[in-house]
Amino acid sequence: MGIVRKQSILSSIYIYIGFVIGAVNILILFPRYFTTEQIGLTRILLDVAMMFSTVCTLGSIATVLKFYPVYKTHLPREKNDLPALSIVLCTIGCLLLLIAVPLLKPWILRKFGARSPLFIDYFDLIYPFTITLTFFSLFEAYAWSLKKTVLSNALKEFAFRLLTSVLIVLFIVGWISFPEFIGLYSWIFLIPVLIFLYSIIRQKELPLNFSASRLTRRIRGKLFSFGGFLFAGAILNIVARTNDTIILASQSTGGLSDAAVFTIATYLVTVMEVPQRSLVSITTPFISEGWRSRNFEKIERLYKKTALNLLIAGLAIFGVVLLNMNDIVRFLGPAYAALTGIVLVSGIAKLIDLSTGLNTQILLLSKHWKLDFFTNMMLVALSIPLNYWLTKKYNVMGPAYGNLIALVVFNTVRFVFIYKLFRFQPFTINNLKAIIVAIIVFAGVWFLPSVEGIFLNIFIKSVVFLCLYGWMILRFNISADITELFAIVKSRFFW
User: Fold this and answer.
1) Mean pLDDT score of the chain, rounded to an integer?
2) Hey, which of 238, 313, 442, 445 has its CA 20 to 30 A from 373?
3) Alpha carbon distances (Å) from 344 to 11, 292, 318, 325, 401
4) What is the rounded distance in angstroms from the CA atom of residue 373 to the CA atom of residue 234?
């Protein structure tokens, strides 16, 4: 776990700094200087671009993650044709986007025109947003495969939010208008793409060999079969992740305003994903290598450790967010009163997702990878009708309830599949101990008297909760990794 821990720490630093910048953007700057409709527009553009970019990759992302170790092992660098093949596929996907989306525009006008007219006004910005995000996703997959996860997370989590801050400041000082802001925002992934490209080319790690290698000719059936299934699975997965705000914008009575409230709630819950994002990018190549070498003990060890550590981190972040929701709503204003309920329900859903560890990566990179497609199909089949029906019934709370139900079923099914097929399961008694500790500490801090001043109250409650929670996690040695990491930090920086 040495390499995993080192890169995880560096990646987490970038991710947490990025999330601090994002918190300033989402919780302070956007609500103060933008209307709720404008905030909702930034989110809906990003979600639609994520959905379309997944289609544009034509399965190349999963193929790179699965087969890059095979190409690296069996071919010299200059004969490796996988990079050229994946770039061609993404280019074809983007060309198909430019042809197909205009055909869908009349239907989109009908669905969003009444409740979210601002989205219709700026719909064409989907094209640059999608194309740049497509190639960013491709180069990110190569960065993961090359174990350059620190660069990947720095660009995705830190640079994206910093560039957003720059655009917001330019808007605030009056140097650009809102149409110019949103136009530049749609190109925000261009700079990270160019940095990715420069880094990979400079180190000569992305050969462009357009001649089909013997390896490609020999395994092309597996390549297209795997890529095709995982392409469909990735589309289903991204639809499941983004349909909530899209349904809100088109069906909720508040339209883009409700999408804005849900966006802020989602951001607060998404902070819980920070450790998961760094661990997924770092451990994916190790799991791939583990399956290739049939090192099942290594995979199960990663499964248990990551599930426990993700749960501990998720409980810490969820506790801090939930303790301070009253102050956050008071700061943002009455328009955001629904935040507390959304965060509570969505946070529980996220904890369930985190507690099952790296089940997606274990299934995806195994010989039973088709199960990833079928379980993603099930998730979409659950989430879209649930979110649609519950949004009609409960408006902005609807997608929170829908996502909770869908994620419980989804993760339960994946847990059962992994246990039946490999006899892997991520839970130990320490997982239960972590939950008990978090509940006890949360209850104790909840009843502390409040002090005057929103930010001072948030600071005091957060510090007290984290210190008590961290002390108890270390005191009972719930995670060996966290205990060891604390000992290393203490010996280097204190005594």
Assistant:
1) 81
2) 313
3) 27, 41, 9, 9, 10
4) 8
Token digits for 434?
């972590």
**Cβ neighbours of residue 2 closer than 8 Å, sequence gap 6 or more:** none
Residue carrying structure tokens 């700061």 = 331
What are the tokens at 107? Answer: 């239907």
Whole-number Å distance between alpha carbons of 122 and 179: 8
**Mean per-residue pLDDT, 287-298:** 78
Residue type, 34: F
Q: Rounded to an integer, what distance in angstroms lies between the CA atom of residue 255 and that of residue 240? A: 19
Q: Are 227 and 59 in contact (CB under 8 A)?
A: yes
Q: Which of 141-155, 165-179, 373-387 has the highest mean pLDDT?
A: 165-179
Q: CB–CB of 398/255 below 8 Å?
A: no
Query: Which of 267, 56, 289, 293 minimizes the C-alpha distance to 164?
Result: 267
Q: What is the pLDDT of residue 205?
A: 67
pTM of the model: 0.69
CA angle 161, 167, 168 (to 5 degrees): 85
Cα 181 to Cα 162: distance, rounded to the nearest angstrom: 14
For residues 213 and 78, the answer to whether their CB atoms sit within 8 Å is: no
Longest pairwise C-alpha distance within the chain: 71
Average pLDDT, stretch 99-110? 77
CA distance 189 to 134: 9
Query: According to DSSP H, which parts of 203-295 are helical?
Result: 214-251, 256-270, 274-292
Residues in the chain: 495
- Cα–Cα dist 435/431, whole Å: 7
CA 37 to chain centre: 24
Cβ 354 vs Cβ 272: under 8 Å: yes
Distance separating alpha carbons of residues 442 and 417, to the nearest angstrom: 34
Buried b (16+ CB within 10 A) or exposed e, 232-254: ebbbbbbbbbbbbbbbbbbbbeb
Cβ pair 20, 157 in contact under 8 A: no
Q: What is the DSSP string of 362-393?
A: HHHTSTTTHHHHHHHHHHHHHHHHHHHHHHHH
The Cα 68–Cα 145 span in angstroms is 7
pLDDT per residue over 42-98, tens digit each? 888 888 888 888 888 887 777 777 777 777 777 777 777 777 888 888 899 899 888
